Each structure stands twice: as structure tokens, then as C-alpha cells.
Amino acid sequence: MLQIKNLTITHRKDGRALLKDFSFTLEPGERAALIGEEGDGKSTLLKLIYDEKLVADYAEYTGEIIKGGLKLGYLAQELSPEQKGRSVYEFCAGLPSFSLLTPPEVSDCARRLGLRPELLWSDRPVGTLSGGEKVKLQLAGILMERPDALLLDEPSNDLDIETLQGLEAFLNTCGLPALYVSHDETLIERTANVIVHLEQVRRKTLPRWTVARMPYRQYVEARQARFAHQGQVAREERSRYEKQQEKFRQIRSKVEHAQATVSRSDPHGGRLLKKKMKAVQSMGRRLQRAHSESVQAPDSEDAAFVRFGAGTAVPNGKTVLDFRLDRLQVGPRVLARNIRLHVAGPEKICIVGRNGAGKTTLLRQIAAELLARSDIRAAYMPQNYEELLNGAQTPVDFLASSGSRQETARIRTFLGSMKYTADEMEHGVSELSGGQKAKLLFLKMVFSGCNVLVLDEPTRNLSPLSGPVIRRALKAFGGAVVSVSHDRRYIAEVCSRVYRLTERGLFPAEDFGPGFSAR
Fold it and tell me: Which pLDDT belongs to residue 248?
């Protein structure tokens, strides 16, 4: 049983508390989803539970983490450069249990996650695997270690939809208690029986946490209902207080007027009015005290806010893309043939397919063609944000074009709407969470006035709170979108057409037709 007692985590650089007096017990059979906005310390908490050395360079903590001899299986959000440089076989051989398992046992771990068993003995560099294949490889390694409990940081990132469904089944049936971060609302709804919600309220100056032993949808609905009731009561008490204050001001005004006009020849009347003013002032203090103890409006961490400008529309019927490719290949490997894709007007296209099918490779080629066009304004959001981000730049520097004071003020306003603190605006981009980097790229597209977006897994690092906001913004976007995604909510709510990439080319995905639901 994993126990956490009175845990407080503080960011070394700016002294900001990420978590305060957090206590939690992970019981057998519990699948606890760790949710919260980007940068609120979810990954830091998982790292700290697994190995405090992973956060020693940027965070410090007080409190107790009691593992009780548990063997923890930890999935990191990102592989290290050293791990990416190894071959798949070298990666596996570095696991203590790999040499102790029989080949059939190793193959079984691979098959449970949709990996070809022979891949685990291959010389292929880990860095050349697709995003989903990297996640599957790490999960297979965890299974080989036979852990007692799981700590998973974004296990759903980059997984194809079939493997996502397999991951859901695995979490629900493996019998291992799990604490995991995921931004896939569908996966959380289908697997979690405990919600651990980390928040930063009062402009990210006060950490707050909630542990709710209930399914995600029930938690969200109960939270919204509680906030709605609290807000209604607060409004009623505020209205009553304002009426009382108005009456108090009228009484005080009358007494002040009487004091100003009382005759000096009437000292007895003056003394009575002085006593009356003391009573009035006492009444004012009582009203203020009662108001300070009344129900306050809900204090919650709101999701990000973003929207594209009105001038980003693409006319109906305009050919945005007429893409033809006889062979899609990486080196000598041919991934697909005879690819055809036509996009017209403000269509929103999504490409799905199994991990390793070549979706990201295809999207890069589509992006290169669209970015070279002069009749449209295209922007590309890669799966690997570092392709566009300079880790040494601050968010303000990345978004700035002229560097003027007016532009800087506007940028800071937009960053504030995306829930960046003043300190985070001055941090290097490399210090931001994956979700904060994603928001930064979205803001760049908003500032650039783009009318065609090429997006590789656009919602993969966005919290369950920010995800709906970005989906609404993309749905309302008047331009065209060509994307790759495994996010079932995004596909259902944003995309007008869905294609599946296979070895024979792109084909309409019949299982994502009209009426498709992520539920």
C-alpha cells in the first residue's frame, strides 16, 4: 500500500508551492487518475514518489512517502536522449528482468500491448520508433519487471486507438493499483475509480488538492453542481449584504447630518448623538464581520481561453490541398502506397492508423507542401515541440515579432489567458510542461493569423480541463485543419472527415462516420 502524508512540494527557482499538505493512500484495486492544469505538478509528484532524485534539481519537499517495500513500475512522459540512442534490444537488455524471462514470456508482454515481439530483439534505434511505439516499449518493459503498483505519466500519449482500448482493458483487469496522469478524457472515464485533482488557485499562488473516490464524470458533475450552488448562495448573500450596507449608509448619513447641525447650546443632544454614532459604527463592524464569514464565490482554477480571429476563414470550395504520393517511406522501408488526399474549404480532416503506419511522416510532407504556398497562411504543430521551440527563449520572446512595448503587453495578456504566471512568462521554454508548450504553439498560430493548420496530435498534452476549450476553438475555426490524432473526443467533436492510413493508402474510416461518439 502506497501512502503519502502531509507532502509539500516547492519549486526551487521561484519558491512557488506546487502541492501543500497532500495526503493520499493508494489502495489495492484503485485506479487513480491524477488530473489538473498544465504546470500544476502532476509529473513532478509521480517522479518524486518513484525516485526523489528525478526532481532534486528543481524541486524540494517535506512530508512522508511510504512505499512499504512496493516494487513500483514507472512510465516517464519522455525518454531520455541516451535511451533514444540505444537500439530496442539494448533498451530491453538493460532491464533487470529481461534476461530472466523466457522468450515466450517476453513475447507475451509485447503482444499484450500490440507490439510485434520480434521488435524487442531488433537493432532499430529507439529514437526512430513512432511516438506510440515508444510508449508501448516502455510499458512492455514495466510488465517484464512484474511491479506491485503502477505510476504512469501519460501512458495514453501517442497510442493508436486500438492500443488505447487495449490499455483501458489492461488497467481495468491487471489487478495492479495505479496512479496515472492522462489527458485522454475517454480513457479516464472508462478506467478511473479515484480522481486526484491538483489545482493552483488565486492566480497560481495557492495550491489545492482534492481526492474523490468516484468515477471521473460523476466527479465533474458533482463539482459543477457544488460550484453552481455555492455561487448562487454567494450571490444571494452578496445581494443581502449590499441592501444592509445601503440601509447602514442611510442611517449613518442621518446621524452625521444631525451631529453637524446640533446646536452648541444643546450638549445633552450632542452626547446622545455621539452614543448613537458609536452604535451605528458597531453595526457596520457586525455587518462586515458577518459578510467575511459568509459563503464566498467558488475559487477554482479555470481552464485556458483561446480563440482564432475572424479573418482566418477559408472560402467554401477553395482547394486547400490536392496531395498525391506514390510511395511513403522511411529509408528503405515503404510504409504506404498510392496516397491521395483532397481538402477543400474549411474542412477539418483527421488521419488515424496504427502506431508505426507513417502518419507523422505523411503529415510532415503535407506540412512542407502547405507551408510553401503563398495563397494560404499555413502553420505546422509537430508532435515533437522542440522542432519549433528554442528551450532558451522565454514564452514572450518566442511569440514576439517586433519586441515593442505594446506587443509585449498584448502577449502577456494572452499568456495570462492561457494560465501562465508572471514567473512562467520569464522562464525558459525548456522549463515548461508539455501542455504549456502546446498552448504556446497554439498562441503562435493565433498571433500569425493562419487559415490552414497542420496538427500532429494537437491535444496530446492538454489537461481534461483545457482540452474542451481547445476543441471548441478548433471547431469554431473558420479555416482548414489537417491533423493526426488518436483523441476520440477531438475526432468526434472537431473533425468533419476521418481517414485511416494503411499500407494501401488513405481510406475513409467507416468506424468514425457521422454520429461517432467517444463515450
Answer: 78
